[in-house]
Structure prediction request, 266 residues.
Amino acid sequence: MGWLGRLNTPITNWRGQRVWIVGASSGIGAALAAELNARGARLALSARSGGRLRELARGFDEALVLPLDVTDSGAFTLAMMQILDAWGGVDVVVLSAGTYMPMRAWDLTVDTARQTVHTNLLGVVDGVAAVVPQLLRQRGGAIAIVGGVAGYRGLPEALAYGPSKAALINFAETLYLELAPHGVSVFLINPGFVATPRLMACVDFEMPALVGAPDAARQIIEGMARGRFEIHFPRRFTLMLKLLRCLPYRIYFRVAARSGVRRSDG
Prediction:
């Protein structure tokens, strides 16, 4: 399993690689699709918006457009069947679909929390369940899961989003332990703040070390080329958050409180 070296099989040549990107219509997924197309990958693009996917695919050499809603438990299996019909297999699956809705304790509703967890966590679980049997048959391939640094520790305004990302980190770690002995790579991608349309529309505070989606895509590709398990960026920001994970609660809560906890209007 490469305990003293690379944890995953490095991906350095993308030409001809069969790559399925879920969440490809905008943000990191769209930027990654553009970068991988330029590197010669064969792409399958999925997201809820078929129109956006078709618009994106028009600029590519060749791409399968497979709209799906990650909250539909049967959608992944159907899309996987279409990919197998077209390609006969798949080399890399990137699960980047997600949602962010800022939420504090006094705004908590079960419906909003359930929607966040269903999209960010259960959607990934459904995707993994649909692709793992094929990767095991191939005895090779890779799954890349986009988590987030909000999963490192509890943060203000992330009452549902943070737990969904924390669960993804645990899920990816366990998935690695299960699949690595079978030759299947698992990459965990934990970005800091990335300038995506959804994030920019929802966030009302200053975002430190903000990076653009094209830069995020390049850093993901670089991390996969190095065979890393966790790909986190920008490192000047994520390493600081990793340090905060080591603090005792008495100190951590004071630091986190200064980052923006506000009183309820009530």
